[in-house]
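Structure first, sequence second, as always.
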């Protein structure tokens, strides 16, 4: 049995955020393509609203990943959610000298803990406007 899938199942059935975080850390680590493929439902759909792209099916997702020139290094920031809905925040570093991309991923899982819908929002860092400086602190 895929250990990440077991953790995702535990997250779904027990609302276990620690299990989900551990599973995501393993997934973002050194998970092979076949193991990651097993985490997706056959009905898997991934959307990136900002670019207007949709990948339908886990076979196409695996093919896209295998063709990806250089996958990013991912820093996991936060995992939150419960049941079948989870939100993952991270920072992707593509190693090209540009600023890192901040990403928010919304996952909808099935009863078996497999990802059915995967929606990804990407943003690059930007300079904060001066007009709100008195109310914020820079991180």
């Amino acid at each position: 049995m895929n250990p990440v899938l077991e953790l995702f199942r535990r997250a779904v059935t027990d609302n276990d955020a620690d299990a989900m975080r551990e599973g995501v850390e393993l997934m973002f680590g050194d998970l092979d393509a076949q193991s990651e493929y097993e985490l997706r439902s056959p009905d898997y759909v991934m959307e990136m609203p900002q670019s207007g792209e949709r990948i339908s099916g886990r076979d196409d997702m695996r093919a896209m990943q295998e063709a990806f020139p250089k996958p990013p290094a991912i820093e996991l920031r936060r995992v939150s959610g419960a049941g079948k809905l989870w939100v993952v925040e991270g920072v992707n570093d593509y190693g090209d000298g540009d600023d890192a991309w901040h990403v928010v991923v919304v996952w909808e899982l099935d009863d078996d803990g497999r990802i059915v819908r995967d929606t990804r929002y990407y943003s690059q860092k930007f300079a904060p406007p001066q007009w709100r400086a008195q109310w914020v602190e820079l991180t």
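Margin note: The helical segments are 3-14, 17-28, 33-38, 58-67.
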